[in-house]
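Q: What does the predicted 3D structure of Fibronectin type III domain-containing protein look like?
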Amino acid sequence: MNRTARTPFLRRAAVRVAAIAAAAVVATAALVAAPVAAQAADSGTAEVTASCASLVVKLRTFAAGGEVSIVVDGETQTDGDADGWRTIGTSFTRTYAFEPDVAHDYTVRVNSFADGSAGREFRAGTGGDALFSGPTTPCDAVQVLASASSCDAAKRVDSQKLGLEISRLRPSVTYLVEVTDASGEVVDHFQFRTSPVVNKTFSGLSAGETYGIRVTDQSNDVLSGSTSVTIPACAQAIDLTSLTTSCTGGAASATATLADLVPGRSYTAELTPGGATAAIAGADGSGELRLTGLADDTEYTLVVTDDDAAIAARAAATTPTCASSAGGDGTGSTPSGSGTGAGSSSGSGGSGSTGGSAADGTAAGSAASGSAASSGPRIVFAAAVQGVNGTDLAQAAVAGSDDESGEGPGDDGASSATGTVGGDAGAALGAADAGASLWLWLGGILAAALAALAVWFAVRHRRGRTAE
């Protein structure tokens, strides 16, 4: 046989060998996949999800059948035999509602009748048998945060707004928000089904009024939330009586009377030079501003400003010369001039220093904060309440501070347990890998045998052609 005749033969032989090898590989893959697919179909999958409001059990593709037992707070939920087992077909789905404001204990047992799952005996982690259990976490009640607008002029008294941030909301729950006035009458409302946080603004409200806000969880009232907020009255002119200066304890000081403050509004007092400032709450309506640590023979200006409106009051005075040596305290003063103390004093003039102590007594209800260097000018607000002299600004700020830190928008405390029936995933995977390796090894031997047979056939056929 010449070389030209051999070439088509060799090509045909090579094609036959490749086809036989491919068929062997496909057959081997089918042998490996068939038992694995059958095992997955028989075992099925189980999904158990526990939230603060419900327990959801979903069982799927149990081709060999099985049974399930569900116990919540010690009570069996499945109707079946005396042990609480209920027979299932290829699938099973149930939802059990909870009281969402308390914790619940649950146990779910799934017994698969698939091959390799100990037959009808339940053994968690063996074959398709599985166990889910645990406590639930109670749902959080709705949290309501409210903020009010500021009325900066009397003409806007009935054009105020109320801003709400509503959090800790649950999915698929309808909520009703109601705004009530002081008499309890509903002045506005709205309904929604949004989670986990909603922001809402109500308008057309009145300054100087207190409003209640209630957010009702319409699926469970115990998870509702409420709060109240007062919209401060409109800003008005501040009555600041001019400064009166004096020498107290050998040091220059001054006082001024403050009146017509609006409850609920905040103010800032600032002294120049020196830069001393103090925050003043308007809850007391009036009081006295005391300025200490002042320099001799210096003109000071005191300005009190409404923090949320363009309203301010101003007073100015020049301090007297106060001797550092012992002598009578001098008093004097006026809005625009300087005064000299009536008591005699000797020694060189200069700026006196104060010990920084506040006047004795406390001012009920005053809430103010401020800072000033202990060696420099200092502002003290003494609220005029029941004849009490007043308190140091910084001390009042500390005493009046409340920790209002709250939790952010939370979830509904849901916890879930989701998995595939069949026990330990690692062990199952290892067994599957071992079986697959065995089938691949056998398939390789088969493919090699078929390839050898094809080569033998090709050689024999070639020899026969040569003999011819």
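A (community wiki): The structure tokens above were generated from the sequence. The helical segments are 3-43, 393-399, 425-467. Residues 20 and 450 are 7 Å apart (CA to CA).
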